[in-house]
């Protein structure tokens, strides 16, 4: 039975072999029932066709039949199960009836199957779809039952139709070839040639279809159940030997037919081959060589080289037509040599040698020209890229440098170095590409001189062009390097400028901190002369530190001015920093001088007081001196610090004045008491 006869029925997918197997390696036959009325005649025809596919060996393992009744009624399921007894009673091992979620009456179904068990000859079980894996592995079930086996019914049916079509056509073609090979061989040459072409086409089409089919079957066989969309290995094990046997028979009959044709057309082929060989040789040595000789340029740009490449491809296309004739002639000569007479062999070998020498020589010239053009395109492309890199570097060098901070300068400097390195790498690559191109051109010149009178002047111009391009790029690169050196020095000076400005601002901040510390923390005057002297020494050191900071800041600002003059740019933040430095320094010197005078008055007061205390008899003049020095100190403490800009600073001394008044009053009181005691 052929599939085309019952094709409408097979398309309904009333039953199918998915390729899955049960745990006994038996094939799985699936019967998907639906709510529509199922025709038992169509189902029976489908089962008959499907059972004709597997081999007897596969059938001997038995079938596991899955009756999908989830979308059908019980009476239809029962009819199908009973029908299996008549269609495939011996081959069925197990029937799994997949029941719906709202299944039929258990008592009725169980009773019916139990009642028919002995008569059926096979076991029937009711199972839900999710429990079907208890009997069959999930990998052997299709996705309808929660399995992973891929099955495409339309694809299977198409492959089956292809197989049956190949079998039918190849069998018919074998019969025709057998009749031709065993029949009358007296036929005119022209008619035989035409008929030979037709037979050749038919055989090639049939063999090609057979190979495609065989390849498909072998691939699915090796992939196993994972190949999907097939009729299982039972079909494949049967189909592959049939296809291979038919292909072997086709080759055998066609080989015999070709031998008949060759014997009949040998003399005609010899004449035709000689004519075609001379046509190929004359064209390659004439117009072909002239085309190559007239196209030796390499172009002066990548666009020109691409145009030359396009022209060369046209030349190659013209040659390829003749090379195709050469291949065909070579195959014909080789075929005739294997079965020719002795005198024919000598003539064929001479023609073959002459044809091969000319074709190989011309092919070598085309390949050398192709290599030159490819090297020229690479060289021009590298030249263009290097030129763009040099233009970008030059544009960067010609642009004004006005970075906002040191980080941007460092970034620009890094970018400049990277561009210079890229240019250096590009020039190195250009030299390499130029060397390769010159080498290819020398090779081209060698065979050109051997074969033809090559235009040496054009080749020399090409060499000079390559060398001049490399020299020009070298000069441009050298000029850019000189400009890079100047720009690098300028950027380094700008880095130094920003550093000086930053350090100068830091010096101003340090000096401001010293001034703030002087005004807020350097307020004590000491409790005796020794402590006051110590404070005077520390104060001098403190002033020295401030002086060093001020000198450092001025030096940085002077360096900033020099760098700005060198860079020919206006003074940047140093124009504002210098007044700030001078203002803070003047405030510091005024405050330091005031602090110096107060410490000196305090030292004088402590010295006079201590001297009076050490006297055995205190004179009135000494007490007056103590009083006058104390009052002078008190008056000095009450005076605010007046900065050069007119600002008065006194708030930080209020508490000091209070304590100093209390201290001086107490000291004077003690001295008066001491004086009274001494008088008494």
UniProtKB/TrEMBL annotation:
Q: Which domain of life is it from?
A: Eukaryota
The family database entries (InterPro entries) matched by this protein are listed as: CRAL-TRIO_dom (IPR001251), Spectrin/alpha-actinin (IPR018159), Spectrin_SESTD1 (IPR056804)
Keyword annotations for this protein, in alphabetical order, are: Coiled coil, Repeat
Q: Which residues form a coiled coil?
A: 406-433
Q: Which SUPFAM superfamilies match?
A: Spectrin repeat (SSF46966)
Query: Which residues are in the CRAL-TRIO domain?
Result: 1-153
Q: Which family does it belong to?
A: Belongs to the SOLO family.
Record-given protein name: SEC14 and spectrin domains 1
